[in-house]
Amino acid sequence: MSIRDIVFIALFAAIIAALALFPPIIIPLINVPITAQSLGIMLAGGVLGATRGGLSVILFLVLVAIGLPLLSGGRGGFAVFFGPTGGYLIGWIVAAVVIGFLTERFWHRLNYVSSFLICVFGGIVVLYAIGIPWSAAVADIPVATAAAGSAPFIPGDIVKALIAAVVIVTVKRSYPLIEAERADRPSAA
Amino acid sequence: MITDLYIFGDTVVHRLGPGKKLLALLVLCSLLFIFESWLALLPAALLVLAGFWLAGLSAHHAFAALRPVLWILAAIFLIQLFYSGVVGAGFVVMRFAVLILAASLVTLTTRTSEFVDGIMAGLRYAPRFVPREKIALAIAMTMRFIPRLRAQFDEIREAQRARGLERNPIALLVPLIVRTLKDADEIAQAIEARSVD
């Protein structure tokens, strides 16, 4: 891993932190706030790829754990991992890695649709598959109940996946980071 | 700089090493999930309260720590009420409260810089294949760049406001990311030019 990769990892962790300032969008009807921070997780994977994206999410979570109030709403410290929704924070790491891995695999065919589907899979399917059983286990409630409790957040996450897909494809056009590494390998695609 | 959640103090709890506090927190958490009984929970609750008192923290700090999860805990209480009655529901919710308060006690009495120093000291003993300098560089750089990126984000928002785009997430995110990636390239070149690697 080069110095350049380290700088990308560090600066993207700082971007995820800066996204806490993003004004939350309230979805009408169900009244659930969408925060931009989990959007940052999708972007970390989609822009940096699996390894660097995953490491930048880990770095961000380490800084949250050691007492910086970087989560939206100014939350931070070890307490956020001990609450009922701590599993989603750990799931962020896996989500970024999965999105990064799939984005690398589909790099040459990446468009709004494929990127959106990748973000939905990694940022919703995989993330909830970790967060829901975790909540159920620590709160001692059935998995189905925990799933029902998470359902109101899905529309917001679909909106985030849409935004993330557009941003990932646009950034790929002006500043492709995954391509640069593949160029010196024998062309696989 | 960014401020941490630390509350200034010079008590026994504040002076205890960050590693010891963290270990105590992990042990407490494990015990409360292994021994799911009031016999474990009540002493743990007393211990955490004593910790708050010893650290000179007030009920206000404790409430602030619990406020973000208040609604979720209320919902869990109602669900538990249905499955396991008042006692079971009370146990699960109180276990969350004790764990969250214990974790907050560690955060409120330990500076972020103490943890960073602890991580750096720990890395010295890490095996050779661990890229120690790179981990240290990444942590230091992120902390240094968070205020700058926040300022940059506000700047981009101002610029897009002039175009009526300040609530368009794509018009905010794309410039933020592209500009940061370009900065990252320049910073990496600057570091390499000083042959740190």
What does this structure look like?
The complex is a heterodimer of chains A (189) and B (197). Chain A has one domain: Orthogonal Bundle (Arp2/3 complex 21 kDa subunit ARPC3). Chain A is built from nine helices and two strands; from the N terminus they run αββαααααααα. Chain A has helices spanning 3-18, 37-48, 50-65, 79-82, 86-105, 112-139, 143-150, 154-174, 178-182, and strands at 25-26, 33-34. In chain A, strands 1-2 form a two-stranded antiparallel sheet. In chain A, α2 (37-48) runs parallel beside α5 (86-105), α2 crosses α6 and α6 (112-139) crosses α8. The longest helix of chain A is centred in the middle third of the chain and has 28 residues, at 112-139. Chain A starts with a helix and ends in a 7-residue tail after the last helix. The mean pLDDT of chain A is 90. With 197 residues, chain B is an all-alpha fold. Chain B has helices at residues 12-15, 18-34, 38-54, 59-66, 70-109, 112-124, 132-162, 169-193. The two termini of chain B are 27 Å apart. The model of chain B has no long low-confidence stretch (mean pLDDT 92). At the A-B interface, α1, α2, α3, α4 and α8 of A face α2, α5, α6, α7 and α8 of B. Chain B: Keywords: Membrane, Transmembrane, Transmembrane helix. Chain B: The chain crosses the membrane at residues 22-55, 62-83. Chain B: It is found in: Membrane. Chain B: It comes from Pseudohoeflea coraliihabitans.
Query: How big a fraction of the residues of chain B is strand?
Result: under 5%
Number of strands of chain A: 2
Residue ranges of chain A: pLDDT <50 for 5 or more in a row? none
Radius of gyration of chain A: 16 Å
InterPro entries (chain A): BioY
Keywords (chain A): Cell membrane, Membrane, Transmembrane, Transmembrane helix, Transport
Membrane topology (chain A): Multi-pass membrane protein
Transmembrane segments (chain A): 6-27, 39-66, 78-103, 110-131, 151-171
